[in-house]
Amino acid sequence: MSIFLIAEIGINHNGDMSICKELIDVAVKAGANAVKFQKREINNVYTKEFLDSARDSQWGTTQRDQKLGLEFNYDEYMEIDAYCKEQNIEWFASAWDLDSQKFLQKCNCKYNKVASAMIVYKDLLEMISKEGKHTFISTGMTTYDDIEQAVNIFRKNKCSFELMHTVSTYPMKDENANLKMIKTLRDRFQCDIGYSGHEVGLAISYAAASMGITSLERHITIDRSMYGSDQSASVEPPGFIQLIGAVRKIELAMGDGIKKTIEEEIAVAKNLRQHLS
User: Fold this and answer.
1) Please, what are the domains in the chain?
2) Rounded to a whole number, what is the largest CA-CA distance in the chain?
3) Residue 94 bridge partners (DSSP)
4) Does 237 sit behind a cis peptide bond, omega within 30 degrees of 0 on the bond before it?
5) What are the φ/ψ torsions at residue 28 (nearest 5 degrees)?
6) Can the peptide bond before residue 171 be classed as cis, meaning omega within 30 degrees of 0?
7) Alpha helices in the chain (DSSP H)
8) How do residues 137-160 score in pLDDT, each as one tens digit?
9) Using CB atoms within 10 A as the burial measure, which of 12, 148, 175, 276 is most buried?
10) Closest alpha carbon to 93 in 214, 6, 223
11) What are the backbone angles phi and psi of residue 150, rounded to the nearest 5°?
């Protein structure tokens, strides 16, 4: 089975539809299977005190202004939906609250995503799993008990899922990647395992691609110096194109693990061993 490659746009569009479509174009050009977003109802996710606190941004002078500026409304998501259909790429999003998941239900996406921050939110897990859509579940900031609780909910509701090994730092330090957790999660929970990476560079994702993952997610950006908390942990267009090309080569190169002499080797062997005849 080919690795399912996800271009995480998240909030890197900065509330700008032209940037959003440019990022979708990058994902399509690279050969990604899907683009992913994040959806929040900010009054559910943040306290009034926090939202009313000061923060200067291009949208205003409060945290509320900044958070609202990063959210697309239903009409904008329908524009994203139409654009993705034109470009023949799937899209889906991770909801951070129940109202946002209800919002996403109206969009009729093929997949769901549980963000690492939300894997401990039992009511959200119940809502998502009862939809029955294949779900990618990130496992950053968790304990084994947290993951087991999520797995049990999805299995109880007979909803297809895969876990994604994740370390939730932005950007992640190379020494914290702990890629051996991919095998640990697979052995412990007996399910497919993906990798959601927040590192700088591509090497760790290449390594993950060689470890039998079923999905790979990386944040993408037009420019890592752009405004936004996730930009520094994102991959710019040339790097993302390189990443997907390399992952497909890695998949091809892994082979089947069965020792055999390929046809092209026969003439080589005859030439190099002629003195043994």
Assistant:
1) 4-276 (3.20.20.70)
2) 86
3) 38, 113
4) no
5) -65, -50
6) yes
7) 17-30, 42-45, 48-52, 63-69, 74-87, 98-105, 122-131, 144-156, 181-189, 203-209, 237-254, 263-272
8) 999 999 999 999 999 999 999 999
9) 12
10) 6
11) -65, -45
User: What pairs with residue 62 in β-bridges?
Assistant: 54
Say which residue the tokens 């919002």 belong to. 103
Q: List, in sequence order, every residue forming a beta bridge with 92; answer none if it has no partner.
A: 36
CB-based contacts of 245, cutoff 8 Å, min separation 6? 30, 31
- 86 CB-contact burial (10 Å; exposed 0-12 / middle 13-18 / buried 19+): exposed
Residue with tokens 């005849």: 277
Q: Show the tokens assigned to 175.
A: 């020494």
Question: What pLDDT does residue 1 have?
Answer: 79
pLDDT at residue 39 is higher than 90:
yes
Query: Is 198 buried (19+), middle (13-18) or exposed (0-12) by CB count in 10 A?
Result: buried
Distance, CA of 170 to CA of 200 (rounded, Å): 9
Quote the tokens at residue 55.
């923060």
Torsion angle of C-alpha atoms 14, 16, 20, 21, degrees rounded to 10: -160
| Cα–Cα dist 215/203, whole Å | 16
Average per-residue pLDDT for the chain? 97
Q: What percent of the chain has pLDDT over 90?
A: 98
Chain centroid to Cα 160, Å, comes to 17
Residue 152: what residue type?
A: N
The β-bridge partners of 197 are: 218
- The strand pairing partners of 149, in sequence order, are none
Residue 272, number of CB atoms within 10 A of its CB:
10
| 60-62 and 135-138 beta bridge pairing | unpaired
What is the H or E stretch that residue 166 is in? strand 161-166
Q: What is the pTM of this model?
A: 0.95
Phi, psi of 13 (to 5 degrees): -75, -15
